[in-house]
Amino acid sequence: MTTALTGRVHLSGVTRRYGTRTALDGVDLELGPGVTGLLGRNGAGKTTLMRCLATDLDATSGRMRLLGLDPSRAPERTDIRRRLGYLPQNPDFYPHFTAFALLDYMAVLKELGGRRARHDEVRRVLRQVGLYDRRHSRVRRLSGGMRQRLALASALMGDPDLLLLDEPTVGLDPEQRIRFRNLVSRLAVDSTVVLSTHQIEDVAALCGHIVCLDGGRVVFDGAPGDLLARARGHVWEGPGDPGSGLTSWRLPDGRHRVLTPGSPLPPGTAFRAVEPTLEDAYLLLVGVSGAEPAEAVR
Amino acid sequence: MSGWHLTPAQAHDYAARRSDEITAMSVEAHLMHCAPCRSLLPADESWLADGWASLRDVVDRPRRGPVETVLASVGLRAETAKLLAATPRLYQAWLGSTVVVLAAALFAAYLLPRGSLMFFFLAPVVPLVGVALAYGRGGDPAHTLASVTPMAGQRLLFLRTCAVLVPALLLCTGAALLLPHTTTAWDAVFWLLPSLTLVAGSLLLGNWIHLSAASGIVGVLWLAVLGLVSLSGQTVPVGVFAPQAQACWGVALAVLAGMLLLRVRMA
């Protein structure tokens, strides 16, 4: 998988520490054009990795090359930033600015030159995220979902070659999420998009490549099909409680879906193997600590 | 609606601006609602598109705030004025509190024995507090978005520092002019070199630690040194601003500024 990529993002042994805590531990990555889904539970190191890719944080050790440039050197870092779009987790704004004025300010920071060209770019991204009609609304009057779209518009300015989206669909309604998916899939034809999210359905809909972090380490790096293949034979459905401390949850029809990370269920039980979803595969990969033990599901 | 339409000759005269005024007005009124006659006129589509885009831009563009307008009117580039005017909320709060602090220092100078000391203590710290709030996560709500743009880092930091220094220096100079014993221009700017030195020191220290922490350390050091000098009774605090001391401040400022420049070039 990774050998086919052209390497717009190249990380080799990247470690990032905050004092004594290691947030990233020897991460190796090679990403090319297309959408890469970055998965992992809270505290797995996703946001730290995104901030490193966004040139907001330096790696404590290891080697990074972004868009063929070295982010540890100031002139190259600035060049990377000219070709970078970043939607951070929980973005904040100047509340008294209008949506247009805020993006215009961001466009100045992004060195999008010439007032007319800059304003045209602001209009373009406002239309892309469906906020053009609210361009004169002050940020404090926008809903949470609208602010999220405003931050996305800021990330999209200048047609970035590397687009980093940290929890981009938080606060978006279903219609906006579909719009977001269409937008990202169009952008990913030419750009490298990294999508950090807990929304597995977004990953399933968009990503041709998945990276999963756990405890700051990469525990999976490959295609969604490879992740699903690992889960085959470990997902079951059947009536009642399977017992034996396995992880399961009750389905709407009253049956139980069971994940068996180790050996499959013993033959003769009423459970039958079913095709895993990406969510099943992810839960199996990270140890299913988020689901309830089967005995608790009554 | 009459059945009158433009003849090709009339259309040609109008396009060539050879129609008399009355005919031109009649033609324009007719063209407003007659597409076939409009098609008789030559049109430069790209010019029209550009004209509409310009018009849309005039209607759409954000209105300049008063600060941005003033900055642009004194000759700053529109982009620079925009960046300087878009200052964080804490910076605005700092500006308000600066006025209050300097007013309090003036009251103290007039009403208390040795009250002028308050101004000596605080005038160099006032810009330092502003610098601490001018850049970084603590003072700028949009810092997360701004910090990964090409302008982020030293360029934005120095720009914001200027945005803080100019009003701070003006306010402190204004307050110094109002002090009870101010008689010469020197009396109004004696605090300037120490203040700029502290700012340069905090910017340099900000290369290794968070800027607000750097400014805090430098400010506390300044107050501690001045406090110790006051308590020791051997030297009056005003001596820190004496002409001989000013030479030392000047040298220190030059060294720190040189180190800052070196640091920027090496980054």
Which residues of chain B form runs of ≥5 with pLDDT under 50?
none
Q: Determine the CATH topology of the largest domain in chain A.
A: Rossmann fold
| Computed structural class of chain A | alpha/beta
Helix/strand structural class of chain B = mainly alpha
Which of globular, elongated, flat, extended, rod-shaped describes the shape of chain A?
A: globular
Beta-strand residue percentage of chain B = under 5%
Distance between the termini of chain B: 73 Å
How many β-strands of chain A, per DSSP?
A: 13
String of helices and strands of chain A: EEEHEHEHHHEHEHEEHEEEEH
Number of strands of chain B: 0
For the biggest sheet of chain B, the summary is: none
Question: Rounded to an integer, what's the Rg of chain A over CA atoms?
Answer: 21 Å
List segments of chain A where confidence is low: pLDDT < 50 over at least 5 consecutive residues. 1-5, 289-298
What are the key terms here?
A: 298 residues; alpha/beta; 6-stranded mixed sheet; 4-stranded antiparallel sheet; 9 helices; 13 strands; 31% helix; B: 267 residues; mainly alpha; 15 helices; 0% strand; elongated
3D structure, described in words:
The complex is a heterodimer of chains A (298) and B (267). Chain A has 298 residues and is of the alpha/beta class. A six-stranded mixed β-sheet of chain A has the order 5-6-7-3-8-9, with helices on both faces. The model of chain A is unreliable at 1-5 and 289-298 (pLDDT under 50). In chain A, strand 8 (209-214) and strand 9 form a beta hairpin. Chain A folds into three domains: 1-83 and 160-222, P-loop containing nucleotide triphosphate hydrolases (Rossmann fold, 3-Layer(aba) Sandwich), CATH 3.40.50; 92-159, no CATH class; 227-286, no CATH class. Chain A has helices spanning 46-53, 74-82, 99-109, 115-128, 144-156, 174-187, 200-206, 224-231, 278-286; strands at residues 9-18, 21-31, 34-39, 61-66, 84-87, 162-166, 192-196, 209-214, 217-222, 235-238, 247-250, 256-259, 272-273. Chain B has 267 residues and is mainly alpha-helical. In chain B, 70% of the residues lie in helices and 0% in strands. In chain B, helix 5 (66-73) packs antiparallel against helix 6 (78-85), helix 9 (125-134) runs antiparallel to helix 14 and helix 13 packs across helix 14. Chain B is elongated and about 105 Å long. Chain B starts with 7 loop residues before the first helix and ends with a helix. The A-B interface holds A 54-56, 74, 78, 81-82, 84, 86, 88, 91-95, 97-98, 100-102, 104-106, 108-111, 115-116, 119-120, 123, 135, 151, 154 and B 53-54, 57, 60-62, 78-79, 82-83, 86, 88-89, 141-142, 144-153, 156, 267.
